């Protein structure tokens, strides 16, 4: 059976899609992995020898817009103000996608929340389609709850956002639900496959059982968990070797990894407070500092004066990108200062690393609440205006990584990591049955 996968053009979406592609290819599915050339280039080295025949990379080209050259056809490093332009350019690529389906005629399409046309186009070719949700069941059920029951408390009291995040998140939902109403897909006519009655989620019952059940009630479709879809440790010695050597020289669980994903860029104030917080914590750290593509910035100039000298061998500032999975899997890593993007959250849980949560935007504040409720994270509180504070950052890092008061968090994270790594393909095996059924429906309709 052939499956074509079309993730949104974001690194945080391509990662779970690629991990699902690898799992399904081991279950004898042939995968066409479709994205822009720049995105396919960035994942090539993660498609190791064993997948070279079962996962085929398929380029989809976006219309060339002057303000969006081809190396901007990804959210990784994209300047904030170009995000909507990228989404618009992707929406304009529907004819290219239609040609790809006509040429390859897969048995199934696995699509993402954007672009809006993947399922409707697949149905015109009588090809079944199912969505892979790249965020958790809690956040999706929270959004559905807010839209369907405005003003009614979310039935899980631990998920309460700090005021600053609550206001911003409600604005994001209003914007999103307005946009999705405008894109309401026209009804499918009856000789095409009906929209699928379930959705795949990058999650698993041990983490989100009660939210999976609630989403299956409040959402339109049944939830089929296929997670955790977590990138493995790609052992390419030559790349980033200086980071790993630096980490090898540190004590067990002595170091925090600090990273805020592939799309977020810290403000000057955030860099200032985080730098002083790391300094005050007296804990070893690897800190990824990154700026939008096209912005030529001297990292040292953005850091507090004398910061690099004062921290010396205790700290390593990495510009642009670090091998996150390899660092989280390393025995010297004892904590993850994270924005709680969904992939980072799952990776931290998978590798058993406790989280110092500093959510920045989107659904990250909710992910932070989820892992705090789960007992493997502590969130750094912001002031009423959302400002970070260096003492608060230092205090939470020391609690999570060093102090006795954080011992239960460290033990819980370690034990849950061991349990999660043992799960293997448990969720996938259950999902394969329903995916095979969808593929057979396509074949029946196409013959
Ligand atoms: C789904 C959605 O994706 C978005 O992606 P974003 O990149 O911000 O964060 P992650 O989901 O953690 O994804 C980031 C991915 O990039 C990897 N990485 C990142 C930085 C680095 O230096 N090295 C790495 O290997 C990391 O390992 C992870 O796999 C938003 O967060 C959103 O909140 C989230 O739910």
TrEMBL record:
EC number(s) of the enzyme? Answer: 2.4.1.-
One GO MF term:
UDP-glycosyltransferase activity
Q: Which Pfam families match?
A: Glyco_transf_N, UDPGT
Query: What's a BP term from Gene Ontology annotated to this protein?
Result: flavonoid biosynthetic process
> How would you classify this enzyme at the top EC level?
transferase
Q: Which PANTHER family match?
A: GLYCOSYLTRANSFERASE
The name under which this protein is listed is: Glycosyltransferase
Q: What species does this protein belong to?
A: Camellia sinensis var. sinensis (China tea)
């Amino acid at each position: 059976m052939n499956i074509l996968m079309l993730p949104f053009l974001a690194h945080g979406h391509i990662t779970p899609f690629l991990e699902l592609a690898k799992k399904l290819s081991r279950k004898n599915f042939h995968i066409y992995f479709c994205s822009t050339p720049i995105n396919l280039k960035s994942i090539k080295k993660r498609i190791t020898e064993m997948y070279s025949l079962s996962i085929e990379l398929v380029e989809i080209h976006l219309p060339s817009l002057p303000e969006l050259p081809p190396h901007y056809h990804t959210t990784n490093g994209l300047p904030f103000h170009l995000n909507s332009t990228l989404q618009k350019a992707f929406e304009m690529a529907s004819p290219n996608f239609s040609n790809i389906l006509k040429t390859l005629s897969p048995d199934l399409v696995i699509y993402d929340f954007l672009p809006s046309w993947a399922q409707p186009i697949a149905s015109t070719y009588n090809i079944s389609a199912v969505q892979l949700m790249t965020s958790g069941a809690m956040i999706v059920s929270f959004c559905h709850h807010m839209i369907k029951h405005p003003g009614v408390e979310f039935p899980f009291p631990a998920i309460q956002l700090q005021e600053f995040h609550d206001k911003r998140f409600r604005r994001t939902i209003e914007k999103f639900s307005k946009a999705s109403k405008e894109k309401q897909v026209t009804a499918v006519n009856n000789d095409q496959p009906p929209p699928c009655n379930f959705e795949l989620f990058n999650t698993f019952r041990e983490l989100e059982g009660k939210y999976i059940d609630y989403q299956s009630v409040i959402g339109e479709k049944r939830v089929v968990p296929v997670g955790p879809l977590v990138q493995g440790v790609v052992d390419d010695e030559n790349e980033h070797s200086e980071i790993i050597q630096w980490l090898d020289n540190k004590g067990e669980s002595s170091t925090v990894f600090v990273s805020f994903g592939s799309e977020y860029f810290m403000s000057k104030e955030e860099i200032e407070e985080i730098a002083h917080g790391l300094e005050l914590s007296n804990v070893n750290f690897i800190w990824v500092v990154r700026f939008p593509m096209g912005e030529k910035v001297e990292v040292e100039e953005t850091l507090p004066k004398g910061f690099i000298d004062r921290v010396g061998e205790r700290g390593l500032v990495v510009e642009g990108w670090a091998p996150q999975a390899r660092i989280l899997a390393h025995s010297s890593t004892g904590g993850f200062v994270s924005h709680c993007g969904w992939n980072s959250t799952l990776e931290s849980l998978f590798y058993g690393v406790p989280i110092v949560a500093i959510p920045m935007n989107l659904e990250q504040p909710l992910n932070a609440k989820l892992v705090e409720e789960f007992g493997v994270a502590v969130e750094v509180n912001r002031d009423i205006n959302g400002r970070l504070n260096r003492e608060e950052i230092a205090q939470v890092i020391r609690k999570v990584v060093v102090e006795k008061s954080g011992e239960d968090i460290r033990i819980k994270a370690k034990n849950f990591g061991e349990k999660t790594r043992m799960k293997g393909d448990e969720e996938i095996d259950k999902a394969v049955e329903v995916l095979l059924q969808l593929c057979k429906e396509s074949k029946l309709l196409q013959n």
